[in-house]
Each structure stands twice: as C-alpha cells, then as structure tokens.
Amino acid sequence: MSNKINAQKKRSASRRIANVVVLVLSSIALIAVVAPSIWIVFQILHKALPHFTFSVLTKTGAGLDGGLKNEIVGTAVISIGVVLLAGTVGILSGIFLAQYAKGRFASFLRAASDILAGIPSIVLGYVGYSALVVGFHWGFSLGAGVITLSVLVTPYIAKTTEVALRQVPINYIEGAEALGFKPTRVLSRISLKTALPGITTGLIVAMAISVGETAPLLYTAGYSQNLPKLTLTHSPLGYLTYAVWTFYNQPTKTALQLSYDAALIIMVLILLLIGVSRVIVAQTQRHAETRR
Amino acid sequence: MLQDSPSFDGDVKKLDEGSFDEPGSAILSVRHLEIGFNAKKVIRDINLDMPRGHVVALIGPTGSGKTTFLRSINRLNDKISGFWTKGSISIHGEELLSKDTDLLELRRKVGMLFQRPNPFPMSIKENVLAGVKAHRLAPKSQHDEIVRENLEKVGLWKAVQDRLNDSPFRLSGGQQQLLCLARSLAVQPEVLLLDEPTSALDPISVEAVENLLRKLVPEITFIVVTHSLAQARRISDHTMFFYDGKLMESGKTENIFTDPQMPETQYYISGRMG
Ligand SMILES: Nc1ncnc2c1ncn2[C@@H]1O[C@H](COP(=O)(O)OP(=O)(O)OP(=O)(O)O)[C@@H](O)[C@H]1O
Ligand SMILES: [Mg+2]
User: Fold this and answer.
1) Please, are residues A148 and A83 in contact by the beta-carbon 8 Å criterion?
2) Residues near B171 by Cβ (< 8 Å), separated by ≥ 6?
3) Same domain, yes or no, for A38 and A69?
4) What's the confidence (pLDDT) of residue A231?
5) What's the gap in Å between B127 CA and the centre of ligand 1?
6) A171 closest CB neighbour out of B105, B106, B118
7) Tell me, what's the ipTM?
8) What band does A1 get if pLDDT is binned at 50, 70 and 90?
9) Is B66 in the pocket of ligand 1 (CB under 6 A)?
10) Partners of B37 in the beta sheet?
11) Fold assignment, B15-269
12) Cα-based torsion angle of the residue sequence A140, A143, A145, A149 in order, rounded to the nearest 10 degrees
C-alpha cells in the first residue's frame, strides 16, 4: 500500500522535473529567437533616431547626401508591382494546385515550385540580369526588378494559398454543394473567404520580402537618384535596401546616417505591413468559426 | 423479398394522401440501384419508392450503406474517387443519376441536412439567404421577408431577430442546426435528406427538430437516416431497414416495429444488433 503511494510520488516528481526541463528549454529557444530581433530593433533605433530629420522623407538623393524619397518611392513601386504580378500568378497557381491538379501532374508542379523556392535569390538576380536586362535589352529597369522578385516570391504565395484552401473545412464545402452552389461560387463565397487570412498573410510576407531583398534588385533594377520613372524598361530606380547596403560602406558621416535611416524606414514599413495584415484578418474573420 | 416490387403496397390506401401507388405519386423511385467504391459494392440492387409528403426513416446497422445511399440522391458522392452507380434513381420520373442531370437544380429540389451543424462563416442572415442568392430565387427587396419567414418556420426568429448580422457560431449547437434547416428551407426544396440530423444535439434541440419535421410535412418529403429507433418510431410514417447494402424490409413504421417480417429486422429492432 505505502509502496504504491511512494511509487506514485516518485512518478509525479519525475513528471514535475520533466515539466520544468521542457519549460526551461522552450524558454531558452524563445529567447534565442526573440532576443536578436529586439537587439536589431534597438540598434537601428539607437543609431537612426538621434539624427533623424523628416527632410529625409521629402528630399531625393544627391551624391552621398540628400534624402531617401527616391528610394522610398522606388521600394513602394516595386512592392506594389510584385504584389500585383506575383499575387495574381501565385494565388491562381495555389487555387489550381488545391482544387484541380490531380496525381502525378500535381506532384510535378509542386516539386517544380519547391525547387524554384529553393533557388538562392542572388542566382535569380543573375538569371534576371542575363535574360531581361541583357537578353531582352530592357536595361536596368522597373520591369526586370519586379519580374525577378516576383519569380522569387510566387512559389511562396502559391504554397500559402494552397495550404489555406486545403484547410477549409469539408463541412462548409459540402454544405454549399448540397445547397446547389456552382463550383465557382463555392470557391468565391466559401473557400476563398475562409482561406483569406492565410492568403493575405502569404501576400504580406511576400511584400515584406520585396521590401527587404537586395541581391536580385542589384542585378536588375540598378540605381537612380531620381524618382522612379513608371515605365517598365530602361528605368533604373533606387530602393531602400540599396541605400542601406551602399551608403553604409561610404566614408562620410551623412552617408552612414542615410544608411541607418533607410534601415529604420524598412523596419517601420514591415511593421506597418504586419499591422495591416492583422486588421484585414480581423475584419474578414468576424463570422469565422474559430477566431484567429 | 420486397426488392422487386415497390415497397408500400398494402399500406397505401390507409395514408392521408392516399394515392402514391399510382404512377407518378411516388416522389423518388429507385430501380436496381447498385453503388460502390472501386471494387467494393456498398448498395446491392435496391428497389423502392419514396412516398411524397411523408417522413421516411432509414434504419440499419452501421456500415449498411444508409449514408452512401442518401448522399447519392443529391449526387454528393460524385467527387469521391472510385465512386460508381448502376441502375436508376428518379424524381418525378426524371433520371437523376444521368450525366446530363442539372446538379444545381437537383440540389435545390433535394436539399441535405448534415449530422454536424455546418453554418457558413457569414452572418446569420446571409446564411439563410445563401441558397436564395445562389439560385437567384428572389429580388433583393424580398430578402428580409425571406429571412424572417424561414427563421420563423424553424422557430428561431425570436431568438435571433436582434442579431441577424452576427456570427452564427455563437448560437448553440441546436440553434445552429435549426439555422441550417432554415437555410435549406429557404430554397423551397421538395425533398430534404437528413443524415443523423440530431445525433449531435441535446434532448431539447432534438425535440425541436423532430417537431419541426412533423410540422413541415406534407409540403416537404423527409428522408431521415437515424440510429435512434425511438426517433424513427416518433417521427416517421415509413421505415426502411437497410442491411448489408440491401433493403431488407420496408413499410409503415408501425408495422415494421410491431410486426417485422425478416429475422434480421427482428434482431435489429429488438436491439440485439449494432
Ligand atoms: N469513400 C468511401 N470509400 C470506400 N468505401 C466507403 C466510402 N464511404 C463508405 N464506404 C463503405 O461503404 C459502406 C457503407 O457505409 P455508409 O457510411 O453508407 O454506412 P452507414 O449505413 O451510413 O453507416 P453508419 O450507420 O455507421 O453511418 C461501409 O462499408 C463503408 O466502409
Ligand atoms: Mg452513416
């Protein structure tokens, strides 16, 4: 009898120890993930804020001086272009993969998409350079930059769309079919609506990647100190990551400051994107079964 | 035994509307129906007529093919790989297993209520209107009226009239099922298929749904799969006993329960078989 109680005590003690160990390990993992992000945020704030003036937002570049207006507009134009192009292609591919692609053909498409997603961005940049900038004689241009970045993020958007669509409960879909919805209506009124938070998150991450990528753009978009021309070819343009990367290595103090300012603006933009995605998700999920 | 003859001979004359033994008065006719998944045969040579304007209970042990049969009536199995059918199911003499069948119109006429309530992720009001809008059954000006009418029909109006724009998922399970019923009713179906519609509900909601079915006949014909023999007795006019993919026995509910002819039926209704 007392043996039994002892054994139970021992077992509950070892369980408690296991609990503590798991808690400690997962806390360490969490800190390992969160700490660097916080450290980077503080570094950028610390370096950028003391010198920050709003004229940086309103002046275009002038040598190693001036403002970042041309880069800000350039990044915005490129990101919008990527969301339009990669968003359309990616979401349609995701729908196709989730709903229509069957068997070997579907596996082939998924494998192709995964391989594309695995290609380093600098390699894509070089391919974009030889094909578009040189091959098609587009020169450094908005078109070449947008297409190259789109190739980079399309597999990602396709995957998040496919996964989100596959998670739509079969209950909803069969309910709609049993009510006589056309397949396109099931897709537009039930599946896409339910999958929207997932799809939006994918789009926002794709946009954040376009704001933060450097390598593919160096090869394809070139650089310009003027506001971007809104033509697809022969239209080199500036973008924020270029400023971070280039000005940091320049000898002057103003250039270094511009570099930190650009980093700060990138950070704010990405935080804004995350905020916007949250609002969209909340708005679309008002009637959802489980709130996210 | 009854497999080759329509199953209600004998009882017919005593029914209120009487005449479903005359040609065309059965709303659904099934002839030599076989259903399977790949090499597996799930329904074996079923012949039956569903009488219009009644509640028909489908009973039988688990795996006997009730769900498969029910879902085939509005072609919900079509997308499942390996699914096949042979023979015929017709509604008003119109074949519904044909390639040319207009699935959307079929599903408007033959609705379905599922075991678990499945309101759509849209407001209560939009749920009721979902089918109405899909089939463009009424102009926008009539939508409010349709919402009210159908919610009143299922007895939900009082409870939800102030929150028509809210999410349906804050309703109780029973209320959600009633909402799904209102959604089905709003497209004015002739037949409603129900697969264990109350097995996920509490007793009070079960009673509400059962009373509703009784109230809605004879305008609508209900085909109800149920594992509750007590429920089959309470709500149905006719009972069909499925066993191993075959229709073993069918007839007036009263007769099936008091005077079953087949030994399998006797076993089953005496509760000695799952
Ligand atoms: N998608 C499917 N693929 C293969 N076999 C299936 C499929 N769906 C059902 N079956 C088989 O068909 C038979 C009948 O199943 P069904 O679900 O129609 O029975 P049921 O009478 O509704 O049972 P229950 O009372 O448990 O709901 C079972 O043997 C089942 O395994
Ligand atoms: Mg079943």
Assistant:
1) no
2) B119, B124, B159, B160, B179
3) no
4) 86
5) 29
6) B118
7) 0.85
8) low
9) yes
10) B40, B83
11) Rossmann fold (3.40.50)
12) -160
Q: Is residue A154 part of a domain?
A: yes
User: Do residues A138 and A240 share a domain?
Assistant: yes
Average pLDDT, chain A: 89
Residues A119 and A161 in one domain: yes
Q: By the CB < 8 Å criterion, does A179 face chain B?
A: yes
- Is it the case that residue A195 has pLDDT exceeding 50? yes
Residues A30 and A146 in one domain: no
Q: Pull the structure tokens for residue A47.
A: 């370096």
Contact residues, B window 60-89, toward A, CB-based 8 Å cutoff? 74, 76
Mark yes or no for CB contact A177/B76 under 8 Å.
yes
Measured by CA distance, the residue closest to atom 7 of ligand 1 is B37
Work out how many domains chain A is built from and give that number.
Answer: 2
> What per-residue confidence (pLDDT) applies to A2?
61
Residues A157 and A19 in one domain: no
Q: Which domain holds residue A22?
A: 2-43
Asked whether residue A49 is domain-assigned, the answer is: no
Query: How far is B173 from B116, CA to CA, in rounded Å?
Result: 9
pLDDT above 90: percentage of residues in chain A: 54
B74 lines ligand 1 (CB under 6 A): no
The full length of chain B comes to 274
Spatial distance between the Cα atoms of A111 and A115, rounded to a whole number of angstroms: 6
The segments of chain B whose pLDDT lies below 70 read: 1-24, 272-274
Q: Which of B37, B196, B247 to mutate to test the pocket of ligand 1 (most atoms within 8 A of CB)?
A: B37
A37-87 residue pLDDT tens: 899 999 999 989 888 888 888 888 777 788 889 999 999 999 999 999 999
Tell me, what's the pLDDT at B200? 85
Domain map of chain B by residue range?
15-269
User: What is the rounded distance in angstroms from the CA atom of residue B188 to the CA atom of residue A224?
Assistant: 65
The DSSP secondary-structure symbol of B9 reads T
Instruction: Say yes or no for a CB contact (<8 Å) between A182 and B180.
Output: no
Residues of B in contact with A288 (CB under 8 A): 121, 167, 169
Cβ <8 Å between A178 and B111: yes
* Atom 14 of ligand 1, residue of closest alpha carbon: B65
Query: Which domain CATH number covers A76?
Result: 1.10.3720.10
Point out the residue among B121, B135, B169 whose CB comes nearest to the CB of A193: B121
Please give the average per-residue pLDDT across A176-203, as a whole number: 93
To probe the interface with A, which of B75, B102, B120 has the most A CB atoms within 10 Å? B120
Please determine, for residue A104, whether its predicted confidence score (pLDDT) is greater than 50.
Answer: yes
Q: Does B102 touch chain A (CB under 8 A)?
A: no
| A64 shares a domain with A186 | yes
B44: left (phi over 0), alpha (psi -120 to 50) or beta: beta
CA-closest candidate to residue A284, choices A202, A198, A203:
A198
Please tell me whether residues A209 and A78 are part of one structural domain: yes
Nearest to B29 by CA among B51, B4, B53: B51
Determine whether the shortest distance from the Cβ of B42 to ligand 1 is under 6 A.
Answer: yes
C-alpha angle A230/A234/A237, rounded to 5°?
A: 60
Can you tell me the mean pLDDT for A137-149? Answer: 94
**How sure is the predictor about A166, in pLDDT bands with cuts at 50, 70 and 90?**
very high
